[in-house]
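Input/output pair, single chain:
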Amino acid sequence: MRVYRCTCQNVLFYDNTQCLKCGKELGFCPACRNLVALLPEEGYYRCGNPDCGAELLKCANYAEHKVCNRCVRREGAKAGAFCDCCRFNGTVPDQTVAGNWQKWYDLEAAKRRLFYDLALLGLPYGTAEDGIEPPLIFDFKADQLPAGTNIWRNVGQTSKVFTGHDNGRITINIQEADSTEREKLRVQMQETQRTLIGHFRHEIGHYYWDLLVKGRREDECKAVFGDHEKPTYADALKTYYAKGPAADWRLRFISAYASMHPWEDFAETWAMYLDMASALDTAHNVGFGGHPDPVHADVNKMIDRYRQLGLSLNEINRNFGMLDLVPEVFVAPVVEKLKYIHALVRVGRAENKAIGHDDGQIQAPPPEAKLVPAGAAAS
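Output:
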């Protein structure tokens, strides 16, 4: 994650909406891909980056609901236009319900970080209008509970919202944005981590399986993650919740849930790869040193650097009595899976050269990127 500079030279961070030094409003400019001071003009704003100066309007969710900090180009924009993140929303939380604004704000903040990841890696995504199949869309929904209650529990199949992915549609139960309830589930389900950004990174992994693997590279993927057709997903799910994870999951998988089915193994490994790429990018940008470029670098160097960061940051967290920042263990089978994801990301980026989601900072990957790492074995 990059840091930015205001016109007053104060350091700005990705989620900021106001400079704490000079007081200027801030917004993310789609023209120069920077968080910038918004300089008021008559009926619009001008990008405060002197090398840009684009004419901007606030995203509708910024102007009306204060859950966004991004802008749209003024030219050609219609009233109430959404930014390059908010335009992917299908369903948003009901704002007449107390507490839902904060949940929506937190969901959007996590989603913007996901889109930063995707831009950093140059991955393809889009709506039906963009010609992308499957089109990407987000639904933020709540369980339907009896009147007067404010609890999160199973109230029947027709009333419960399950976080998941279905053909490009990512649904997230908005109670995942309630830190108290999310922590209860983290402990109950014996998960080392359960975060909002983690949900986004996991579910987008399912999206990229559909986009980059399904009907195209399934045999290659099976060679690394196992046969997703045997057993069926429904049978694997039933077995997992009846018997728990595989006894030896720590020797073969990045998480207990990854042992449930090859699709979940892929999504969990994909999420881990995004965690790693994001952490390395942030470490470089905030001055920790080292810059294994997640597009061009050798994946072994990326993993080694992430392990090094993890060991250091885990000890710092332990000094404060906090959970490990990087609880995962990179055993050999997990490393082979990360290599596959790294190669798949390169292929996705190469296919994305005409889509236009790149932030312009990383060049195209070498054409010789391979999908199946040497020595990969079925899990």
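Residues 291 and 359 are 17 Å apart (CA to CA). The chain has a mean pLDDT of 87.
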